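Repro:
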Amino acid sequence: MIYLEAPQIKYLQLDHNSTCNLRCPQCARTYEGATHPDLPLTELTVEDYKWFLNDLLNLETVMWCGNYGEIGFSETFLDCLQYVVENTRVKCIITTNASVRDETWWKEVAKLLKGRGKVNFSIDGLEDTNKIYRVNSNWSRIVSNVKAFNTAGGRSRWDYLVFDHNEHQVDDAVELAKQLGFEEFQIKLTNRFVNDTQYTQGGEAQAQEVKNKRSEYVLGMPKNPNFQGSGKTQNQEIIEKYGTWTNYVNTTPIKCKWQPNGQLFIDFEARVWSCTWTASGYHHYGDNTQKHQAQQLFDKYGKNFNSLRHHSLEDILNNDYFGKDFCASWQGTMDDTVPKLLACGRTCGTDYEFSSAYGSNRKLIKL
């Protein structure tokens, strides 16, 4: 079964660039407080957009997600956004940490998005706490940029990841969001305290020791059960029921979150992936399960099998992997030649909800 045909694609998520101004501890681009040394620092261009948008005649939404990069840190993003706005009718959604560029730049973004979309600002705390996870962020710049965007007519949502150091500030942040002109406030519960250590060795979710050039501290899970991601409990239930994560992934049915909605992902190297979660693994650092599985695909199908700089989108969607093998792998195991991906079992299996964008891991407040 083909994953998606081009006319079925309605929602495109882009990781426009791999460069970023921050060094968030649980981001895949961060290693020991710095950008991990194997990550290629690059970005998409207007020519890339022209190439793949030409095949997406039924596209309704483009979202810039920041899987590895911050759009405001890109030298090409504004030109690409302008191209999308002027040459399509799609809705545009941007995710940003807001701690980059100046008021003029964000006013221009608001102008381009007017009547066409919104910005989700990822701000995890207040002046004294946002910088604990959003390492290198500048609070005064964040507030200034948010005000500039919103007062220029921009529509926005505040996304708030909850940790033990900021859980006491949620109510205050909601009030500040109202004052700054946000339309929505979204509480996001993270499951990233369950990681490759648990996937390969078992054990409970653990607080994370953080070390960077400025400080050392422990990044902890919220103490309030209402702010704890579902993964803390579900991880233990999986170990108790299946013995290991491998056993779980090998046996769980896959109910894909993206395929039924016509969603597709393109990364900063113009590579096509089924979703943001399957895309992430290739650039993980070190000896990592998801990175190993991605390399298996390149070994079998060739280094450029999913590259839009070497193939048309139509050809990629109809190649052996996306045309038949990927969906067939959902019935297989992680040991197969075309492996059942850990990202698929973890994110779209029956017993675990990994993403902070789905289920009980998100709580949306209308302001």
